[in-house]
Automatic annotation (TrEMBL):
Keywords on record: Membrane, Transmembrane, Transmembrane helix
Protein's name according to its UniProt entry: Uncharacterized protein
Membrane topology classification: Multi-pass membrane protein
Keyword DNA damage: no
One CC-aspect GO term: membrane
Alphabetical list of Pfam families matching this protein: Sre (PF03125)
Residue ranges crossing the lipid bilayer per the database entry: 54-76, 88-107, 113-134, 178-200, 206-229
UniProt-annotated location(s): Membrane
Family listed: Belongs to the nematode receptor-like protein sre family.
Amino acid sequence: MFILPYQTGVIVIGTDPNREYYGWWTEKQNDMVLVQNFQKVIPLFWSSWVFWHYVYSMIFSLVALALERFCATYFIEDYENVRRRYIPYLLIVFTNLITIPYSYLIVNNMIPFWIAFAQCVVNGSFVFFGYLAFWRINVHLKNRIVKRRMNKKQEYSLTRKFQIEENIRSFKLAIKMVFAAVIYLSISLIILLCLIFELFQGYEHIFVHIFDNIVLAAALILSLTLLSCSPSWSESFIRGLPIIGRYRSPRVGHFNFPPETSISESDVYFKQLKHAWL
């Protein structure tokens, strides 16, 4: 809302009152805005800073999610039982300590374009391959527990087993969001490259507005993708909609649990519970 009047020329900046500025980044001095009085563009400066902070918060929040899953793997013995509130707080502080100065440097053109572009690529690659690596680690740990169950002489921690299964379940739920985030980021970067290399000559203002909406809609798209990762979440969301939810009938799932697995898990549980009270 604050940036659009400056882009369209409603609020005049620079020396040419008839010129509109749509570019995201340029090295050409002729395409740069010459500001004679900084006081007149303070709203534009602050809104641009907040906008870039939002952009890089979305990018680094994916890294924070991957780090949270790393913590779940590292504290695998008691991650769900022991409260570690410092983990989300540290991740939030970590994200903002990076994004706030990073966005300031971007606004003031203190970071070269290719470094900022490479940062997005590195973050997307880290999230994608990081999730795959953590998923493989937890699958490997689960297979080790299965082998221990086959060998009755070896015992295993039931808490550890439950946490491993919870990690694998969360990875399966988040894999759609990770793929969506990587694809979404890739599309955004491709459009940005096309704008930088002026491949849309004559239609720059149209694609700039498309790119703006793609960036601003990232939180909405990823939130809807996250809801669709779980059938229960998506069902609850659809049923909560004002009109569609009234005609949505609840679904009932039927599950068949193997009796052998239940008995063996119960035996392990009560055995560990007995030793815990001794």
